[in-house]
Amino acid sequence: MFFHPMDILIFAALGLALWAQSKVKGNFQKWSRVAASSNATGAQVARFILDKEGLHHVKVERSKSGTLSDHYDPRAKTVRLSDPVYQGHSISALAVAAHEVGHAIQDQHNYTMLVIRHRLFPVASIGSQLAPWLFIAGFLLEMTNLIGVGIILFSGAVLFQVVTLPVEFDASKRAKDKLLQLGLIQSREEKGIGQVLNAAALTYVASTLMAVLQLIKFIMIFRGRR
Fold this sequence. Notes:
Blueprint: H1 5-32, H2 42-52, E1 59-62, E2 71-73, E3 78-81, H3 83-86, H4 91-108, H5 112-140, H6 144-181, H7 190-225
Parallel strand pairs: 1-3
Antiparallel strand pairs: 2-3
Helix pairs in contact: 1-7, 2-4, 4-6, 4-7, 5-6, 6-7
Protein name: BH0997 protein
Keywords: Membrane, Transmembrane, Transmembrane helix
Pfam family, one: Zn_peptidase_2
């Protein structure tokens, strides 16, 4: 069976994404077994950093979606942490909690890339849902225009993922800086914090790479059919 070079690149990106996911879980579990010297929980760390930043109105709640479901909700102004992070005293718990607070700080300061990401979200949501159906319909009905519309919509979803990269990297940097500045971790604990956050960032890089390659492939098919 002959594979197009672009297909090989997409499979390679998929492999990277799967490896990154396992790396996230592995590093989280590894550093979940190492207690932070501050003995603070993820929830306490999140609340402490938020208060130091003057974000008293931002709430810290338990997430109801399970492990690694931690996120910041900009509409509700709420940091939601999974149980292992919310009540955990580990390096992993502090890293994840501080990262999500990093997003709250970005929101407070109207961080440019986060603002762009929020504005792209509706377009990305529609594009990711409709584009696959338009591609299928375009191929089955041999209607090139439908494929073209699908490419435009999918481009919005890809752009959203590209913009997400600097948002996530910046939140991780803010997390590490705040943990050190406020004395919540010691310098020897910075390695564990970095491993947890870097593994998570790699998943975004892999998924973005795969989306970009898929978009390029669809554009090549579109141009070939024209």
